[in-house]
Amino acid sequence: MEGYHKMFNPSVQSKKPDRCWLILPVLLLLLGCSGIDRPVGLAQLDDPDTLTRIRAIKWAGKNKVTAAIGALIDNLANEDAAVRLVARRALVDITGTDRGYHYKSGPASRAQAIARWRESYENHEEISPKQ
Which residues contact 65 (CB under 8 A, 6 or more apart)? Predict the structure, then answer.
């Protein structure tokens, strides 16, 4: 009953600081160090930091960067499903097709679709930006 009384009675002061205020500086520090505001480009398509890599992949798709297609195909084989998902989306945004690739498919199915992507890319098949 004492906790209830303290919670709803402003005249009763707790001697311990509220724990949520202790977490706030840590969250601010993490957000400040995350590189969210740093620009991305082709060089970040293979960045070891997953968030930076995903931001670069999204940038490539949004801007229809055809020079990124090879790196995007490589990212289809990434162990992280989020990276695979955004790489697929970027390739669809750039080319208009997914060549049968599904990021949630099993490794064998994904490998076959990645082989199709690589073959068409290496054979310089027409990969035109989607309008």
Answer: 42, 59, 94
**CA 37 → CA 43, 47, 58, distances in Å?**
16, 16, 14
Q: What does pTM read for this prediction?
A: 0.69
Query: What are the tens digits of pLDDT across the range 84-112?
Result: 999 999 999 999 999 989 988 999 999 99
96/52 Cα distance (integer angstroms): 24
Domain segments of the chain as ranges = 2-32, 42-122
Give residue-wise pLDDT tens across range 38-76: 889 999 999 999 999 999 999 999 999 999 999 999 999
| Alpha carbon distance 73, 70 (integer Å) | 5
CATH 1.25.10 fits 42-122, yes or no: yes
